[in-house]
């Protein structure tokens, strides 16, 4: 039996949660505000778990969580943040301050029971809050999304922000890997330092070493002066190595040495430079497969993949498509001469049925193109004809992003996309989705289970 503190100003929700927790065999303590809760905690033993609402009278939930983390006896108490409207900011903010979980109301009894069992069985210490940057300001990169897949990404970024460990971001092209890296940087204690991005695929192999580590005067033809590399430029901050899977093997060995020793030697010099840099790497390639093929070092993969972060493709985040589309339209209307445009119902239905092989980048491009060419303020299905115009897309054309995949993986991705599309069109009605796909309902269940969609779709 555990003692659970519940902090929420919504009387009905608080009382319902108290009743649920008590029915599960635990004792409860309730408070309507953060100030009330902190006052009670001064005269009572630390609880085993705290449920904390995000929106409270007076200090909000994040401020209360920060206060809890400043009290030695409460620093490791698991805190579950609650919110009626999850956003990337409040999710990342909660997780970076050491919240155990972040839930969206309403929360079912089974979810509460499973969560409490996980909390009470692990007895894991929550990390200290440490020194963190302020909340993201308008105009700063945001990881938008309300789907469960994106909420998981936001939570992992929040947890990673409290460390300086190397992060490896994987995902298809266009899923927002650099945005995730920038959000992680801004949420970390290094936010005041520089964020330096390097696209390893865009720099010729013979110049990559100089680009990363710098060079001395006369190090090679054309080196007329000493030049700092990107590692030095990122000192005290974050170095983002995009498309690290395209790095040549010889350069991989040198990067491994830097990650191990935290020192660089500029090309053509004997000067050794200490660097305090958090490395965040990203790739759309399958590095494990590259290791098996001998084109990527296994020891480097171990060094990079300390904290893995996989960015889900847009076709697996159907719930995020329309909010993202409206966000891009809002951004396009930020200029003084631009009028805000909106999506019609038929346009919305179209957008959620598409597979989006180019992911979020393709969606942003589609919004800009349709907005620029549409004659009126309401974007209709016809304004997105370029997305499904078969006249310019022959039947034997391989969709973008599929050409480099092994046949089995390409077929699996296409099957997953078609099932998600059918479920979106039928509002989750699996029998109707099976009919649209031309298969039996049992066959649909079997395929969904093999693709790992049984619980998410």
UniProtKB/TrEMBL annotation:
GO MF term set: ATP binding; sequence-specific DNA binding
Gene Ontology BP terms: phosphorelay signal transduction system; regulation of DNA-templated transcription
Membrane-spanning segments: none
Keywords of this entry: ATP-binding, DNA-binding, Nucleotide-binding, Phosphoprotein, Transcription, Transcription regulation
InterPro entries, per database record: AAA+_ATPase (IPR003593), AAA_lid_NorR (IPR058031), CheY-like_superfamily (IPR011006), Homeodomain-like_sf (IPR009057), HTH_Fis (IPR002197), P-loop_NTPase (IPR027417), Sig_transdc_resp-reg_receiver (IPR001789), Sigma_54_int (IPR002078)
Domain Sigma-54 factor interaction: 143-372
4-aspartylphosphate: modified positions: 53
This protein's record includes keyword Transcription regulation: yes
Keyword Transcription: yes
Name under which the protein is recorded: Two component, sigma54 specific, Fis family transcriptional regulator
Organism per entry: Caballeronia fortuita
